[in-house]
Specification:
- 72% of the residues lie in helices and 0% in strands.
- By secondary structure, it is mainly alpha-helical.
- It has one domain: Glutathione S-transferase Yfyf (Class Pi), Chain A, domain 2 (Up-down Bundle), CATH 1.20.1050.
- Helix 1 runs antiparallel to helix 5, helix 1 runs parallel beside helix 6 and helix 5 packs across helix 7.
- It is globular.
- The relative contact order is 0.13.
Length: 171
């Protein structure tokens, strides 16, 4: 269980930010003056993250961080498929904190309509996420909390971005 929780903190969460941030925030940041952007960026306390945000503003989905992030997502899916070949959930046959920690990052793939990353090649992961979404707690805490208009807007952004995201996946 600790592996998955640490993986989310160290790898998956930063990767999610590297993919989502240029899609959602870049346009509004580019509308600001360079001085305004620099003031906002200077408030990010961690230098590596601050430098990453600068690259994401400058290059958008063409930033090298995006390629690394997509590869991290893909490797996560590969590792999950292996784990799920042993049992129903990530660390056993009972839903656990590991599943709770990882599932929001699949909501990201779902809302941007990028489920093609895993649906064809990774049946165990596909079933795992379907099982997560079928849980009453997930329906109440995640699905019901995203307004349909937001979900549709994110889907549009995801479809527009998919060609660039897809470039970083293994063939």
């Amino acid at each position: 269980m600790r592996f998955w929780m640490k993986h989310v903190d160290v790898k998956l969460h930063p990767s999610c930010g590297a993919i989502q941030w240029p899609m959602i925030m870049r346009d509004s940041m580019l509308k600001r003056s360079e001085d305004e952007r620099n003031v906002l960026l200077s408030k990010i306390p961690e230098k590596p993250r601050r430098e990453r945000q600068k690259r994401l503003i400058q290059y958008g989905l063409d930033a090298p961080d995006v390629s690394d992030a997509v590869k991290t997502y893909y490797k996560t899916i590969v590792d999950m498929e292996k784990a799920l070949s042993q049992h129903k959930w990530l660390v056993g046959n009972e839903f656990s904190l590991a599943d709770i920690c990882v599932s929001p990052y699949f909501q990201t793939l779902h809302q941007f309509e990028w489920t093609g990353i895993y649906e064809e090649k990774f049946p165990k992961v596909t079933q795992w996420y379907a099982n997560c979404r079928a849980r009453q707690s997930y329906k109440e805490a995640v699905i019901a909390e995203v307004p349909q208009s937001t979900f549709e807007a994110l889907g549009r952004k995801g479809r527009e971005s998919w060609p660039k995201i897809k470039l970083h996946l293994p063939s």
